[in-house]
Amino acid sequence: MPPVKSSRRSKTPPEGFKTIEPTLIKLQNKLKEAQSKSIKAEDKHNSLWPILQINHQISRYIYTLYYQKEAISKDLYEWLLSQKYGDAILIAKWKKTGYESLCCIQCIMKKDKNHGNTCICRVPKSTLMKNKQDEKVECITCGCKGCASSD
């Protein structure tokens, strides 16, 4: 009989969580508020934009604290991701060259797009302006106005 797997994730937060907890709670409350508003909205695409933007904001906060400011420990960073405070896949993409300002994972998923390409927000603005004059370009998935690393 195989051994029973126990949960190895620690429920108690590591040291340093108390300092960032108020900001995370504030952002999570904003996320809950946006989720409740999106249920009541009529337009499906536009109603999800605030949720994706707040998710991006929370993940960017965690990423900045760990990779740029080095204000939190590796244990705390891993605990935050294991507890689903931030989007681990999005943070992993930010570490790669060319994806430093990626808005959401859905914008680079080629299989979800009509023509098998990435989203319009991933195209550099300088390239778009050559072809189209004074036309607003925003992603229909998340409302991003441009997240190409060359912008």
TrEMBL record:
Keywords: Nucleus
Keyword Nucleus carried by entry: yes
A Pfam family this chain is assigned to: BUD31
Keyword Nucleus: yes
InterPro entries assigned: BUD31
Subcellular location: Nucleus
Domain of life, source organism: Eukaryota
Family: Belongs to the BUD31 (G10) family.
PANTHER family: PROTEIN BUD31 HOMOLOG (PTHR19411:SF0), PROTEIN BUD31-RELATED (PTHR19411)
Name of protein: Pre-mRNA-splicing factor Bud31p
Gene: BUD31
